[in-house]
Amino acid sequence: MITDEKKSRIQHQLDAHCARYSSQNKAANALKGVSVAVISDIRNGKWDRISDDMWRRLESQLVASGEWKVYQTNAYNQMSCYLDSCKNDGLVMWVVAPAGTGKSTAAMDFRNKNRNVFILTCSEDMNKTSFIKELAAVIGVKADCLTVRETLAAIVKELVKMDRPVLIFDEADKLTDRVLYFYVSLYNALEDKCGMMLLSTHSIKRRMEMGILRQKKGYDELESRIGRQFVPLRAVTSSEVAEICRVNGLNAQEAITKVTKEASEVNNDLRRVKRSVYKELQQLTLFN
User: Fold this and answer.
1) How far is the CA of 46 from the CAs of 30, 31, 39, 136, 194, in angstroms?
2) What are phi and psi of 4, to 5 degrees?
3) Which spans in the chain are helix H?
4) What pTM value is reported for the model?
5) CA–CA dist 81, 66 (Å, integer)
6) Exposed (0-12), middle (13-18) or buried (19+): which is 3, by Cβ within 10 Å?
7) β-strand 92-96 against 117-121: which pairing, if any?
8) What's the confidence (pLDDT) of residue 100?
């Protein structure tokens, strides 16, 4: 049974989701298995028409789990600055940092606070078709019966109408060579019309070097379009880990010391920090 409190929270998140799109139709297109009618009913308070399964479907796509609070590390602030440049100046850049630095979190926060910012999480099994179709869905473009070429054209047409749009490709290093080469076509169609940021670990640097050395198709073109540089983020520090503990309600110095020690052993990976903080909070609750 979905409580009214949870439904209210989901509606709030749905309102925020819709605010990022020019229409409810496009907002619905960006969600899986959710119609415009469902969105309209929820936003108009007609909750009795919505099944628990639909509430759960929305919750899984809209509501972040838990009550974790984001602390603005140096890396977070760098990401925010770079994303501002992408949005305001139409820049394209590739940002690199170790896993667990907070790249995705900063990107999602930026998306949630700005209109016309879209995130596509990349994967190794994407081909040209799935890449462009998933991008269309994220933007809110309905492309069920369109070819790849037609979908690309529809995406470009939609984005050029927007005010300072930004595309963020998370885990872009997972894309195959063929899809990365196809990305160049997307860039060419949107140059100076849409800011773009690609995010990944440092592994892409070696891959790019080897691709250019072996004269593999698309690599020189791709490197040119990102300004022939990868932009690094600052590492997370132990003092930042301690602040993350405090903003999330862990104030006992002994527990903070334990979390920072554990984090230092894994290069201050913020995913590990989150687990450690929750574990210490749970232990303190049980003790009390």
Assistant:
1) 22, 19, 10, 29, 37
2) -65, -35
3) 4-19, 24-29, 36-43, 52-62, 74-89, 103-113, 128-139, 148-160, 177-190, 203-213, 219-225, 238-247, 253-264, 270-287
4) 0.88
5) 27
6) exposed
7) unpaired
8) 96
CB 143 within 8 A of CB 96: no
Q: Give the tokens for residue 170.
A: 């998370």
Q: At what angle do helices 238-247 and 253-264 cross, to 10 degrees?
A: 130
Write out pLDDT tens, residues 234-288.
999 999 999 999 999 999 999 999 999 999 999 999 999 999 999 999 988 777 6
Query: What would the pLDDT profile of 149-185 be if each residue is shown by its tens digit?
Result: 999 999 999 999 999 999 999 999 999 999 999 999 9
Contact 219, 241 (CB under 8 A): no
51, burial (CB in 10 Å: exposed 0-12, middle 13-18, buried 19+):
exposed
Residues in the chain: 288
